[in-house]
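Human:
If only I could read backbone structure tokens as easily as an amino acid sequence. I am handing you a single protein, as its sequence and its fold in token form. I hope you can help me see how the letters and the tokens relate. Thank you; the sequence and its tokens follow:
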Amino acid sequence: MNVLLINPSTGYYSRALFNPLGLLSIGSHLKRIGHNVKLVDRCVSHDNLKKLIAEFKPGLVGVSLMSSRGLKDAIKVSKTVHSLGIPVAWGGAMPSMQHEICLENDYVDYVMFSEGEFTFEELIEVIEGKRNAQSVLSLCYKENGEIKRNADRPFADLADMPLSDYSLVDVDKYLLEYLGCERMIYMYSSKGCPCSCTFCSNNYFHKCTHRKRPNEYVIEELKYLTREHGVDGVFFSDELWVVKREDALDFCRRLKENDIHIRFGIQTRIGLFTKEDFQVLYDAGCRWAFFGIETGSREMMKRINKSINYDRIIPTYEELREIGITSIASFIIGFPGETVEQVKETVELLKVVNANLTPIYHFTPLPGTQLYNEVVASGQYKPAKSLKDLSKFIATETLGQNLSEIPSTDLKVIRSCFEWRTFTRRDALAEEKAFEFAAEVIKSGLHAITQKGPVFFLIDGFKAFKEFSHVFWYSHAYPKIKKKYEL
């Protein structure tokens, strides 16, 4: 069958160059078993959809939605496809957690929840008349006007997945200048996370399960990317890069054995690695490490079930600074019921850890999470009732409904102050010259915008300026609030 996979446009400049790893994995699997696959990423491509469909003649179209950011374009695409008599299947984190709302619309025929490689394979057999929808695990569909949800599919062994077939995408469109790399790309080496933070969708989507791809698979993809596309950096987008430190050390050993010289970045947890481990990672090419700390309040840390060793936070960042790995400390402010005193503890920890980069996000209740269920049950938060409601869903960079006890302006000022500090500090990168990070942000933003053509350049350029102005204003215009939090 001809299968068309679509990554909808997010309409947001800073996300445009994130290669669609989920669709790439599904497409690679479908090609391996004999299907003809075309992957269209509307973040970087603006081909005429009707013309493309007329030429390719797909029997099934899959649309990926990791969040509500791409929802407006996904609806537009799906309406067009469905009007041509072609079945449409949605997948990804957002439809997985909101399948009923999605299927209430006649332009969505199926929703695949959790990972989609084998579910998509079996759905094709349904379209071909070789099996019935009731037999496909992890599939939602409509039957006589009633929405049906089949049982969950057991998680696949990632060793059963093929290597990513990069011929499905234009690799060069996703290469970025980032943290000392000139041609960095995103990859995955694992799926899921074993932790159960109450604000995180991992509990619902991955059921607190972590699965590691074989290191030899990752090495083979790196060989291809470095050889064929000159890739010199990789950001592993895994929720948690490894669970066992032995896997990390094995990966570093394999990099050296295969003479692969790249910089790479990881997302990991406090307490997983020792200083000696960080040195091994650095020697193998690791140049940045991202840690989700989330809060400086021990009380709040317990509430969100962030099970990390608080006493290891500051020593970890000291070790990274000494070794030369750019450190990233991620925090969330505005948790439900969070107090001014608790957020002051977060601000104090932010200053003490002195990480190179300190992204701060506003709390956003994600469907399926424990905190979401709590605030909905208490009447504090009204759940979306339609895709129109979901399309208005506020991203974590922007403050939506404030569920904390902290004034909204205070939250905006705190986030903006640290965003501004990161942007303007001389030593934002561990190994680079002064203000190199600011220069990289500007260059990568302009590159992302210009990839999309003159009309989108104007639109996304305005969005970039608006975001910059927001950060500048809130970080400079409220001296009393800054004094209140000793910013």
Summary: The chain is about 40% helix and 15% strand. The chain has a mean pLDDT of 90. The radius of gyration is 22 Å. The first strand starts at residue 2 and ends at 7.
